Amino acid sequence: MNTETLIPVVGVVTDIRQDTPDVKTFRVNAPNGGKLFEHKPGQCAMLSIPGAGEGMFSITSSPTNNEYMEFSIKKCGCLTTWLHQMDVGQEIAVRGPYGNAFPVDTEFVGKDLLFIAGGIGLAPLRSVINYCRDNREKYGKIDIVYGSRSMDDLVDYQEIIDEWCKEDGIDVHLTIDREQEGWDGHVGFVPNYVKELGFDTNKTAIICGPPIMIKFTLQGLIELGFDKTQVYTTMELRMKCGIGKCGRCNIGDKYVCKDGPVFRCDELDELPDEY
Question: What pTM does this model have?
C-alpha cells in the first residue's frame, strides 16, 4: 500500500447540499483549491473529525471532476451527526483513496450498462455513472433503475432530472416504495421493478443499496437470465480501518477494504453467509 494514503490531509468544506431529509452532500477542496487526491470510480476515503471519530465513505464525485471531491452522507450515528452539523468553510481530515474500483476501463468498456440503486446506494454509483457519462464513447446504452422510500428520499434528484434524464443513450427508471401525492411515476420496490422492466441479458449490471435489496435484486436478475459474472456490487458498509489491519471487514479469506469494496457477484458465493 502507498503510505501516503495513511496520512490524513486537510480538506475544506466548500459547499453543503441538503439532498434528502437525512442526506447531505459535502463538497471538499484542498486548502489552495482543487482536489485532495486522485481516485477511481468506486473507491472510498476516510473522513475524520478530531474528537468525534472517523468513518469510511464513498467518493461520490467522478474522477473526471478535476475541481473538487464530493461525499453524500446519511445521518445515522455519532460521526455522521457531527458531519451534518458542519458549516461551509470548516476543515475536515481526509485520507485515501481506499479499496478497489469498478472495472470501468476494462470489463465495462463496450458493454451496455445497467445501474440499480436503492436509497443512499445511489451515492457510490454516482461516481461510476458520471465517469461513464464523461467517457460516453467507451460504453453502450446505459439504464439506471433507482428507488427510495419516498420522492423526498431520492438522492441527487435534481441532477437526475436535469442531466441524466436528458442525455441520449441513457434511460432512467425511478420508483418509490408507496404512493405519494405529487408523484406520478412508478410505485413499487426496486427488485420487483427490475423484473417488471425485463431487461435483456446482454448487459453488465451494477447494484448498490441495502443488503436485503441487493439480495432480492440479484435473485431477480438471475430469474431474467443474468449470470452472476455479469453483476457487480459494492460493500463498503463493513469497512473500518481501510488497510486490512483491524479485521472488522474480514469475511472468510477476504478483507472488504483490500479485496473490495467492489466485488463481482460470483465472488460472493465463495464467502461464508455471515454478510
Answer: 0.92
